[in-house]
Design brief:
Strands 1, 2, 3, 4, 5, 6 and 7 form a 7-stranded mixed β-sheet that branches. This protein has 4 domains: about 150 residues, Methylthiotransferase, N-terminal domain (Rossmann fold, 3-Layer(aba) Sandwich), CATH 3.40.50.12160; about 120 residues, Transcription Regulator spoIIAA, CATH 3.30.750; about 90 residues, Transcription Regulator spoIIAA; about 55 residues, OB fold (Dihydrolipoamide Acetyltransferase, E2P). It is α/β, with parallel strands linked by helices and about 475 residues long. Helix 14 packs parallel to helix 15. The longest helix is centred in the last third of the chain and has 24 residues. The structure holds S-adenosyl-L-homocysteine (SAH), iron/sulfur cluster and FE3-S4 cluster. The site of iron/sulfur cluster (SF4) has 10 residues, from helix 8.
Length: about 475
């Protein structure tokens, strides 16, 4: 999934969530505050919500101000080098807060926590707790130990299912689109990637649990759910009938839920794009016509060196089949330039593939050697070459994205309105294709889907008008 940028979990009514979490001991008299900062992919955003849910059940209310927090949690990403360095510089900035508030505890969660473990406490002694993605349900207990003065590092892959022990994420005020993790971990071991090491082996949640969580979200007003997984289309959770359900089967069951208008999923691997999932895009109108399907490179030689286990031609044929099922599908992708061994000809093959597919959205990165991954020890492409290739690729992708966005002008789309716009009387929402659309619309349309005609394409969004 796209791991660009960072996201800050929004604060919400923490007190509302107490009912969901088993309270192991009484909440403290004074309400404590937690500040959480989230980097990385959507799964980290989802995890941050679940952690806030677990902490709310222990009397922690979220705050947006680290200065007033009793607990600061950094939910981190290890996917590229800069991601980890950002965490250490953030920790350096936060450290002085401990002098002002000796009760403050600082925790590092997420993929850097998993990958670096004790090294984090060594490098930054202000850190009290290090907790990997598979042990968030133990957070309250870990905090108790930290409060007693212990430095706690927990990076196991425990046998129990964390989701069984984590209260549901706290409901966000007026939220209409939500993430729901259905699959976690990865067994693919692409030669560049840390995820199989930080998230562990591929595990699918039972369909019944996913459906129950979806029902709860819909009851809270959610109209769109994005199913999350590192390889979401490899989903094979146990179904209520005792058989393994595919992602397509799960999507079709979710589409039956009254009130759930839209279903999305991310991130998919080309090799797991099964026939039934492609057919679901043809048959299920609640499944949105937007597909994030990373290919990384258009060169067969590089794809092989990356251990992607498919060719450029396989990918192109797959995209053809997807578009035959759903002609308006907006394709999104991830690309890595400057992978070890990439020549100018290999890079040109990537440019070719991009021209053939025509992406409506894309994320592209310079290869970043990650410790412990197979490609890290190979001979590296010089940084200047990577930078130059990335600039060329991004110019092409930007042009394609612009074209796809401009092509929406004059078309009718259906927009799910999610928040007020910048101007009074405006609402902003997303089209089926995930384009942001702002429209003059009554506030009563918030959380609802309405038909909109696109009148203008702007730099990062579309402008539209309600169709009577
Ligand atoms: N499970 C997802 C995504 C994982 S990470 C998938 O299979 O697509 C998101 C993206 O980060 C990847 O698709 C890849 O393009 C990029 N990425 C991963 N490791 C990287 C590395 N070492 N250097 C640069 N980019 C990387
Ligand atoms: Fe990483 Fe490859 Fe697994 Fe995606 S499929 S998480 S890129 S190893
Ligand atoms: Fe980053 Fe971990 Fe997600 S490395 S991209 S936060 S799975």
């Amino acid at each position: 999934m796209a791991a660009e940028g960072e996201t800050r979990a929004q604060p919400r009514a923490a007190r509302d969530t107490v009912a969901d979490g088993a309270r192991e001991d009484a909440a403290p008299a004074r309400e404590r505050k937690v500040f959480i900062r989230t980097w990385g992919c959507q799964m980290n955003v989802y995890d941050s919500e679940r952690m806030l849910g677990a902490l709310a059940a222990r009397g922690y209310a979220p705050t947006e101000r680290p200065e007033e927090a009793d607990l600061i949690l950094l939910n981190t990403c290890h996917i590229r080098e800069k991601a980890a360095e950002k965490v250490y510089s953030e920790l350096g900035r936060l450290k002085p807060l401990k002098a002002a508030n000796p009760g403050l505890r600082i925790g590092v969660a997420g993929c850097v926590a998993q990958a670096e473990g004790e090294e984090i406490v060594r490098r930054q002694p202000a850190v009290d707790v290090v907790v990997g993605p598979q042990t968030y349900h133990r957070l309250p207990e870990l905090l108790k130990r930290a409060e007693a003065g212990e430095k706690v590092v927990e990076t196991e892959f425990p046998a129990e299912d964390k989701f069984d022990h984590l209260p549901a994420g706290a409901p966000m005020a007026r939220r209409f689109s939500a993430f729901l993790t259905v699959q976690e971990g990865c067994d693919k071991f692409c030669a560049f990637c840390v995820v199989p090491y930080t998230r562990g082996a591929e595990v699918s949640r039972p369909a019944e649990k996913v459906l129950a969580e979806a029902r709860r979200l819909v009851a809270e007003g959610v109209r769109e759910i994005t199913l999350l997984g590192q390889n979401v289309n490899a989903y094979h959770g146990e179904g209520p009938d005792g058989r393994d359900w595919s992602l397509a089967r799960l999507v079709l069951a979710l589409a039956e839920l009254e009130g759930l208008e839209r279903i999305r999923y991310t991130t998919s691997h080309p090799n797991d794009m099964s026939d039934d999932l492609i057919a679901a895009h043809r048959d299920c109108d609640r499944l949105m016509p937007y597909l994030h399907l990373p290919v990384q490179s258009g060169s067969d030689r590089i794809l092989k060196a990356m251990n992607r286990r498919h060719t450029a031609e396989d990918y192109l044929r797959l995209v053809e089949r997807i578009r035959a099922a759903r002609p308006d599908m907006l394709m999104s992708g991830d690309f890595i330039v400057g992978f070890p061994g990439e020549t100018e000809a290999d890079f040109e093959a990537t440019m070719d593939l991009v021209r053939k597919v025509g992406y409506g959205q894309a994320f592209s990165f310079r290869y970043s050697p990650r410790p412990g991954t197979p490609a890290a020890g190979r001979e590296q492409v010089p940084e200047a070459v990577k930078a130059e290739r990335l600039a060329r690729l991004q110019a092409l992708l930007t042009e394609q994205q612009r074209k796809a966005q401009d092509a929406m002008v004059g078309q009718r789309v259906r927009v799910l309105f999610e928040k007020p716009g910048r101007l009074a009387g405006q609402l902003v929402g997303r089209s089926e294709y995930l384009h942001a659309v702002h429209v003059e619309a009554p506030a009563a349309l918030m959380g609802k889907i309405a038909e909109v005609e696109i009148v203008r394409s702007e730099s990062h969004s579309l402008a539209g008008r309600l169709v009577a």
